[in-house]
């Protein structure tokens, strides 16, 4: 059991060991529940796409494929107009 103190602004600090155990990082969200006098903090699931943010550089193969697709569609439209 850990003892924590509520600040004047209503903030608390979750002990480091608990943050590590649950992989909590800056910006993660927790659900707060009041169950008959028992306050429960529960980590909310992280959005899978947000987990990928920043993992790939802009020069990824996907960008190359997107550029190729745009060129192909542009050429296709030009052929259709003829």
UniProtKB/TrEMBL annotation:
Q: Name one GO molecular function term.
A: DNA binding
Domain named SpoVT-AbrB: residues: 4-49
Quick one: where's region Disordered? 53-82
Q: Which Pfam families match?
A: MazE_antitoxin (PF04014)
Domain of life, per lineage: Bacteria
Skewed-composition ranges (Basic and acidic residues) = 70-82
Q: Which NCBIfam families match?
A: lp_hng_hel_AbrB
- What protein name applies here? SpoVT / AbrB like domain protein
Could you tell me which species this protein originates from? Moorella mulderi DSM 14980
